[in-house]
Amino acid sequence: MHLLPLLALAFLLGAPRLAESSGVVRAEGNGAPTDSVWVFTNRVQVNGEWQSVRGPLQHLVRAFEVSPIRPDPVPYEVRLSVRDAHERALSQSAMLHALRTELARSEGAMVLHVHGYATSLDEATEEAAEMRQRGGFEGPMAVFAWPARSLGVTWPAPGRVLTNAYWQDADAAAASADDLAHLLLTLVGTLGADRVVVSAHSMGNQLLARALGHPDLRAVLSHTPLRALVFASPDVDREAFRDEIVPLAQPLARRRVLYGARDDHMLRMSSIVHDGRARAGLLDADFTWPSTLEVVDITDGRVAAPWFGSWFDTNHALRRHGTALTDLFTIVAGNAPAAARQTLGFMTRDERGAWRALDTPLPERPWMVESTGPRSASATQR
User: Fold this and answer.
1) 334 in a structural domain
2) How many structural domains is the chain composed of?
3) For 27-47, how does the pLDDT look when each residue is reduced to its tens digit (9 = 90+)?
4) For residue 148, is pLDDT > 50?
5) What CATH number did the domain enclosing 81 receive?
6) Cα-based distances in Å from 297 to 190, 249, 257, 346, 348
7) Any alpha helices (H) in 222-329, and if so which ranges?
8) 90 with 61: CB under 8 angstroms?
9) Where are the alpha helices (DSSP H) in 192-253?
10) What's the pTM value of the predicted model, to 2 decimals?
11) Do residues 163 and 6 touch, judged by C-beta distance below 8 A?
């Protein structure tokens, strides 16, 4: 058994990200943009604490202050501080009414993000807030917060000496598929399928793939497809993803997008956990993808280094990848043609038809260099 890689998998997926999003004291008078994240969760709350236990769907809106840890001439590469500002529980009807109001202000879409392994509710919502700010997204950002464990470690079990936490989360993801399918039916019925983009990251793709197989959801989306399905760094068997999940998704969304990298160390370790079965988000092999899938290799794009430095980056965290988030929000959610990637100058197309991120500066946004105050109003203050 490969013990060291598995220990690294448990540690890296469980601990550092919490430190990355911890509060950082701002300079006196330095404002921070405030953003709202809409939260749909099937976690149980006990004495104010969200548990890794499945329960009825609940609806929240959380507001965050997001600011750069330091001024930086390359704003897409600066780490961000994400601090919880407000939280409010809403009824389903109030939540849907608020989202309809948000979408009525533009022709854009809502992005529903499905997080990955070893992610607490707090971290899932902080991740979404950072994604929205780093990617400059102006539309509603929502999260489906399923009951993953908050850490990548737990007591061993027979046959799962070092991987029990991983498999427990995989089981929780599978158990949450019907909840996600029912949520998507509600959102599509309220907002319209073309106003919804679903983005899943890492293990969240296992959950999404199961949800897409729900017969009621398939019946609806086959007639009125989603604007897009985004598979970011999917921790899913590569061949099964190509041969089963992509055909499953094809009639359910107007575009299907895969973000992956050639040097995603977390997915390499996951392949070990899965007895050597390569993961779909690891683009390190000569592999033929269907022409119905937009494959985007983000290896060489602009990314903010983690708190412990770029030398130790796992190249797996979507929240820090400026190029991927620009593409997600501007090209995919923005309903721009795929060729706009090359027109805007931050990607090129290789001989196999896949898009490749370039090590090219992205447009600057002043708030990321020097925060100047709230960029958008908090939904909790309306």
Assistant:
1) yes
2) 1
3) 233 344 567 899 999 999 999
4) yes
5) 3.40.50
6) 34, 20, 11, 12, 10
7) 238-240, 246-249, 265-273, 322-326
8) yes
9) 204-212, 215-221, 238-240, 246-249
10) 0.85
11) yes
